[in-house]
Amino acid sequence: MKIVGIIPARYGSTRFPAKALADIAGKPMIQRTFEQAAKCKSLHSVVVATDHQEIYDCVIGFGGDAVMTNEAHQSGTDRCFEAMALQKEAFDYVINIQGDEPFINPEQITQLADLLDGTTQLATLVKPIEAPEEIFNPNVVKAIFKTNGDAVYFSRNPIPYGRNHEQSTWYKNHVYYKHVGIYAYRSDVLKQITALSVSLLEKAESLEQLRWIENDYTIKTAITHYNSIGIDTPEDLAKALEHYK
């Protein structure tokens, strides 16, 4: 399979404007993300999809590949589709790598790529929840899936509901999984899902992957045990710097 890794990196952010350019021990965040992704041997190439000249110039400046995309895109998925269309060659799959995860483990990308066999429509990663409080944190998206790995549902609420146990003991009686925000799309499916209207479940939970499930697309999951550090706020950046040290 011929796979391109695309890193969406928009300039505007309500909580942390221009975070893609934030300095992390001498390198901008987007460079660290790019360099980690480029270590994955399963990717044919890696490209940053941005909406801002400064980010574009930064990527070209450190020797990376970048394309300019429309600033009006509502999601990284939409930006990935435009970036794919701008490529000079065709790819079987696109892997959407979050631009705000500068320490992403290349093995996570490889693990996702291993699911892509031509029949897989969409794929993502999940990770066992180790901190009990994350089960009840709406910013931590929970996932349930079938025995074959196909996703059933994603929610900001705890799923499943521990009917016969006190909430404080749920984590002892069931393995809960959180969603890791990296996606793989078969190229033709990426084109199709970006043409879909926003769905009812998507509106309710503010999770775009529910639109795909509602429209009968299959999302294959794999379990990862690698931790990822997403940076959404300046406070998150401070924690990331401590991690780096």
Describe the structure.
This protein is of the alpha/beta class and 245 residues long. It has one domain (3-234): Spore Coat Polysaccharide Biosynthesis Protein SpsA, Chain A. It contains nine helices and eleven strands. It has helices at 29-38, 53-61, 76-85, 106-113, 170-173, 187-193, 200-205, 209-214, 234-244, and strands at 3-9, 23-24, 27-28, 45-50, 66-68, 93-96, 122-128, 142-145, 151-155, 177-186, 219-223. The strands form two sheets. Strands 1, 4, 5, 6, 7, 8, 9, 10 and 11 form a nine-stranded mixed β-sheet that branches. A two-stranded antiparallel sheet has the order 2-3. Strand 8 (142-145) and strand 9 (151-155) form a beta hairpin. The mean pLDDT is 94.
Strand content: 15-25%
Low-pLDDT parts are none
- CATH architecture heading: Alpha-Beta Complex
- Termini separation comes to 37 Å
Main beta sheet: strand number and arrangement?
A: 9 strands, mixed
The helix/strand class is alpha/beta
Tell how many strands the DSSP assignment holds.
11
**How large is the count of helical segments?**
9
* Overall pLDDT level: 94
Q: Rg to the nearest angstrom? A: 18 Å
Shape: globular
Structural domain count: 1
Helix content: 25-40%
From the 3D structure, determine the CATH topology: Spore Coat Polysaccharide Biosynthesis Protein SpsA, Chain A
Written as H for each helix and E for each strand, in order along the chain, the element string is EEEHEHEHEHEEEHEHHHEH
Can you say what the CATH homologous superfamily is? Answer: Spore Coat Polysaccharide Biosynthesis Protein SpsA, Chain A
Q: Determine and state the CATH class.
A: Alpha Beta
